Amino acid sequence: MSLTPQRNKSFLDILSNFLKVFEPYADSYYKKRKTTLNKYPRLIGRFYDDLQDISKGGKRLRGFLVYLGYLIGGGSDLKKILPISLAVETIHTFLLIHDDVIDKSDMRHGKLAIHRRLEKLFGAHYGISQAIIIGDIACFEAFALVNSSRFGERAKVECQKKIYEVLLETAYGEALDIEYSYKEAKVADIMQVADLKTARYSFVGPLSVGAILSKCSGKQMKAISEFGLFVGIAFQLRDDYLGIFGDEKVLGKSILSDMREGKNTLIIHKAKQLATPKDLVELNKIWGNPKSGSRELERIRDIVRKCGALMWCEGENKGLIRAAKQEIGKLTRDRKLQQILSQVADYVVSREK
Which family does it belong to (predicted)? Predict the structure, then answer.
């Protein structure tokens, strides 16, 4: 499935229009924020420079989904929702910085990860320590952004409550993801990680945050949750696919990290179920070996293709997107928004990064 401009014109148009307003707003926010830091040593200002820089190059999908959720509930004031969209994007940056530390990643969005940049100053521990702090600052800034918005106090409280719930579940998912890199996990365990760490954080959460700030009904909120969970699991499956078959130049990060870490992805779990005994021995030897390289990755690709795990992954994604699209009619009666939601679902399983 390919993301062609013609097929997804509505989605691409509204995303483009959103970004034309969002990006200048984000730049302006950071610029204004840095003017308030003069009383602190230059180090703190550089932290904000790094935050702003590392966030650029991302898809801004979560910030856009906040806006889309807002539209679904009848909201229309783009400028009013911008602080909330930036808050969710800032939380995304916070989690990515910490995730790069956990995964020992070198690159993010085609640039050096924050901890790798800073370790050049005083060593690895310094880089990791300061990266954790920069991530924390991003999280705190997100809540400040919500407070700075023009929504009523009750709406802001509800918004912050939802963000808190999503963050907490994301932390649970991250902890489980780490745990299952060290021990064998069942498919239900891995699916739970995808639910907590990806589906709720990347789709259900952002859409719900936007919807809370408009006039969504309880029925719509339930449909948002169902749609987001289906699309979110598909998003994770696509991530798992890209972790094996992706183009490193397009991804902007190392493609070897999942393999070296021994990450218990759904596609690898399925490959272990379907592989021949001989291939399974080789798969277990390579996956999780920190010394595995490009040659070993090619062998993993061969095994995943040959055993049918790749075909299984593609079939699962088709089923998940089909189920997600069945929820769209419950989300909104607006035909234009229905079309955009359908195209968002298609994008999830066709993206290359």
Answer: Belongs to the FPP/GGPP synthase family.
Per-residue pLDDT tens digits for 207-216: 999 999 998 9
> The domain containing residue 26 runs over which residues?
9-348
Helices 294-307/309-331 angle, 10° precision: 70
pTM of the model: 0.95
Q: Give the torsion through C-alpha atoms of 289, 280, 242, 247, to 10 deg.
A: 70
* Domain-located, residue 3: no
pLDDT 10s digits, 253-312: 778 888 998 988 999 999 999 999 999 999 999 999 999 999 999 999 999 999 999 999
Total domains, the chain: 1
CB 340 within 8 A of CB 10: yes
The domain that contains 179 carries what CATH number? Answer: 1.10.600.10
Is 1 within the bounds of a domain?
no
Q: Which helix (H) or strand (E) holds 107?
A: strand 107-108
Instruction: Please report whether residue 15 resides in a domain.
Output: yes
